[in-house]
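Q: Got one fold?
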Amino acid sequence: MKFSFFIFFIIILNISLNANNNEIVLTKEEYKFLVENQPLKIQNELNWPPYNFNENGIPKGFAIDYMNLLAKKLNIKIKYITGPSWDEFMEMLKKDEIDAIINISKNKEREKYFDFSNIYHLASNAIYVKKGNETLDSLEKLEGKTIVMPKGFFAQEYLEKNYPNIHQILVKDSLEALKLLSLGKADATIDKKNVLDYLISTKNISEVIPTNYIDEDKLISHIRIATSKNKPLLNTILIKAQNSVSDEELLNLKKKWFGTTDIKNEKNFLTNDEKNYINKHSIKICHIIDLKPIEFFENNQFQGINIDLLNLIAKKLAIKFEDIKVNDYQTAINYLKNGTCDILPTTIENTNLKNIALLTTPILSYKLAIITQKNKPVVQNLDEIINKTMSKKSTSETLNLLKSKYPNINIFETSNDYETLEAVNNNKVYYAVEPLPVITYYMSKYALNDIYISRYTDMTLNVKFAILKENYVLYEIFNKTISQIKEYEYTTISNKWTNSFLKDSYDYSLLWKVLSFIFIILSVLTYRQVILNKHNRLLKLANNEIAEKTKLIEKQKELFEKLYNKSADGVLLIKDNKIIDCNEASLKILQYEKDELLNKFLPDISPKYQLNMKESSIKAQEKINEVLKNGICSFEWIHQNKDSEKLWIEVVLTAIEIDNISVIHTVIRDINKRKKMEKELESLTYKLEERIEEEIKKNKEKTNQLIQQSRLAQMGEMISMIAHQWRQPLSAISATTNTLLLKLLLDEKIDNEQLKKELNLIIDYSQHLSLTIDDFRNFFKTDKIKSETTLEELIEKSVNIIKTSFVSKNIELKINNNFNEKIITYTTELQQVILIILKNAEDAFIERRIKNKKIRIKTYKEADSIIIQIKDNAGGISLDIIDKVFDPYFSTKKEKEGTGIGLYMSKIIIDDHCKGNLSVINSENGALFTIKLPLSL
């Protein structure tokens, strides 16, 4: 039975392990690391598509999506850091300012600082050149040429090390490299082919083409994730997450960003029914003939953004659409209803359309922009100008949208989009609201140069395909096909229609420039003599101006020489570690003649060692290196004159160029007086510290004397208390002894038990007298020693000293002790404070003749402090003097009855010695003293 159970357990365990082999199993340490370090800070580059880039503030790319997949599997949050260059990201990772770089190749230098994950992608580098340089197709042919490269990239560092004869221009990123190459600033650039193809298609880079892949295995990038050596747990966590990524998941990411050739035109994303549908049906699409550049009919063919997107969809489906021309949107709706068309591209989602058709996911989105004349103020939002007139095409799909959102809008209706923008250009209306492609097209086509985009609105036009509800299969086919379109394909089509018209405009203006140039040539030939005369006059004026400027330069030179030679500061010019010139002030400060100073260096006119025992020659060279690196530096220096006297100078070095020659401009100042004053100040400071310490010592002695004086001042009162304490025991002892003596005189027999009883009474009374003496002796000890006690014990000792006096004066004392823990404090001093407060209350009762005399003592804990409150009903303290009761020598008693130092010393004991606080306020019928103490000193 036991054996069968064991076999069953092993089988279940094996199934469980196999079922979870794709899950990420983290150790406790790894899980704790993720909890404490979220969100992970990850690098996001500005321009390295399609791997890692930022578009409109959103991190995008293959590496970004891969990292997001790992984060999803780990169930963690990540934060992308955008802005720094590649080199800056590397430094940030070294300093743990970010957690990971997610697209990096491993080399020996990087392995010193970083841990690397598994390889998740291989990428080849290719050579790109400007058109005309197609023969530059290998690294050997680039020898002696100039290439432009992003600084810090693996390929850049590899070429710098292994191909030193290939000159490099270093830039921030791949986009900047392509731009410089297209401008002819370099012969070639080298980068990942995916990256450069994406940038060329999306950033309108022209005249740049690839020539060949680089045939070197070391330049095939093995892309990994790098983490800091200080975070080894993060590296193991990411590797575990990588191991959980399936081949299908990774393939889907690569398809999204790089495309695939093996699935092209095979329609693998469609079901068999959907494939049969498109094979058997001819799909008809309605196109409005005048929606430039969205869709229009020109030169006997359909053109525009929608047309290119539909051609792309047709290519992915391997079919051809049948195009139907319509004049307006309403006609297109009717054609869709009666089946003349199967599909209608639209930006409208009104109820009528939704009742008959299904709308696909958006294929494109356009933000609506506000167009005004250039001389008009910048518009913050549409509400700001809603009371002004706007132009809009009467058949526009967005007209009803604007009217519904702004019912009071004032619209000047036009027959087409050109008239709409032309009305703004000619100031017939104040503004128009149109999508960006329409604006770009008409501004470029018709040279509407007086208008511009003032602000984008929060309204967006989403282009969708409307398909009859009965045709659900076609609706599904289009949604699936739209999801297959890559982001770069969208961007390429959009850029084609937003940038091509700008090129047309450029060609048109070039024609006018040529005509203008011909006109100028003809004008020059016709009026040659007039122009020559004019130039002669201008030349004469220019010569006069040059003469004036020459005089000004001479004056400035003279002024500079005066400033140089007559400056109060010494000025030296140093070249190649030698003084080549100096002014008069420097000779006076350094106490040398000019010929003695020239061709010398600072160590030559200095002692062997500076103040920090560093050799003058070494320190001087360090400062020269610093100024050559940073441009400027300043420091203090010990100089030695001809008589071997040591003098302090302040030196400021600045790297400058004179006649294209690098020299070091040196300013020196005599700081001997300042140094002498600093030394005197240092001496005074030292003496002042000694004086302060001496005064503190004296004050401490005076404080101790005042404390003892306070005790002595109370000694008379204490002796009176001792007399009260002793009176009753002494009377009892006397009575007992007299009784025994009388019985002896009368020869009365004394019982042993009775005798023993009487003697025990005498012993008890004697011990009471002895304890009273101990209490008073402890009170007058001058030793300041911390000891462990309780508030109950401390208060009891204080009360025992004054208890007899309280009883004799009918003073009722009640103690409410709510804190019984042990404390460490200055027991004797604290006992003295309590006794002073109780004695002052007793004096107030007697002075004011209070009949029902009451004192209440209460203790409790408050946060990290303990509180002792002493409250009486003696009438309180006058408000005129309550703020002065803790002042030295202030007393409310008669001149001979009070010293005025009791409460003053109590304040010092509690606040300074015990690190607490003593305060007093008036309560209902008397004074309330509060002692606040720390739990332990």
